[in-house]
Amino acid sequence: GYKAVLMGANALRKIFPLLMTAAGTISPARVVILGAGVAGLQAIATARRLGAVVEVSDVRPAVKEQVESLGGKYIEPPQDETLEGEGGYAKEASEEYLKKQQELLQKHISEADVVVTTAQVPGKKAPILISEETVKSMRPGSVIVDMAAGTGGNCAITEAGQEVEKHGVVIIGETNIISLVAYNASQLYSRNVLALLQSLTKEGQVVLDLEDEIVKGALITREGQVIHENTKKLLGE
Q1: H or E segment at 54?
Q2: What is the 3-state secondary structure (H, E, C) of 110-175?
Q3: What is the pLDDT of residues 77-115, one digit of tens each?
Q4: Average pLDDT of adjacent 10-residue blocks, the chain of 237 residues
Q5: Cα–Cα distance for residue pair 128/146, rounded to 1 Å
Q6: What superfamily would CATH give domain 2-179?
Q7: 43-74 burial code (b ≥16 CB/10 A, e <16)
């Protein structure tokens, strides 16, 4: 999320913060962030530090407080479906819901200078939140950083692995943003792998506490049986 905002700021042909100078006042950039998970929350914090006005959309109303605590303005989602999934993730939305969400977001996105998209559903194709028509409504020189490019993209015309300009809008489809901050990403990843291994062992022996949601979520099979719920669904069991 941090790196995505920096990429957007770098590609934008204007200044991010409010500036009051002898030559006049420059208004702050407007940033819209789609998805308020780990990456989205970091994107909010980074954009605010850079001085932007930030609006945030997420289908989980529970994140509203977190968004506002970071200085973002929460865009209320359509109330037709409850999309709060397990483990803090969002569930897959219906086509009708996605269409309503696209319509809701169009006004906010059309007024944005930078849009950072982070919306993904585990094991599924990323939802399309920005249609080509919405891209056409954006101001020339605006930027979309599609962090979901590797799983299909949140923008209908993102090209995975490419930075392109369409309808006057720069669309960044970097599929491995994590590698651009490899040092810190490796630090955090290794720390979490170590913590997981420590939670699976006691006095040198493997001990599986199935009451622990992390252990339960990581365990695919046990005694020859698939016990992971999402894996069972994918296998049609």
Answers
A1: strand 53-57
A2: HCCCEEEECCCCCCCCCCCCECHHHHHHCCCCCEEEECCHHHCCCECCCCCCCEEEECCEEEECCC
A3: 877 556 555 555 566 677 787 888 888 899 999 999 999
A4: 96 94 93 94 97 93 92 84 57 76 90 94 86 95 96 94 96 95 96 92 86 87 87 80
A5: 11
A6: NAD(P)-binding Rossmann-like Domain (3.40.50.720)
A7: bbbbbbebebbbbbbbbbeebbebbeebebeb
**What is the domain partition of the chain in residue ranges?**
2-179, 181-234
Determine the Cα–Cα distance for residues 62 and 36; give it in Å rounded to an integer: 10
Task: Give dist(CA 165, CA 206) in Å, integer.
Answer: 52
| CA 51 to each of CA 5, 30, 68: distance values in angstroms, whole numbers, following the listed order | 12, 9, 15
Counting other chains too, the contacts that 53-58 makes at CB distance below 8 Å and 24 or more residues apart are 53/28, 53/29, 55/30, 55/31, 55/108, 55/112, 56/32, 57/32, 57/33, 57/101, 57/104, 57/105, 57/108, 57/129, 58/34, 58/90, 58/119
Q: What is the DSSP letter of 92?
A: P
Closest CA to 43 of 138, 118, 121, 123: 118
Q: Which residues pair with 125 in a beta bridge?
A: none
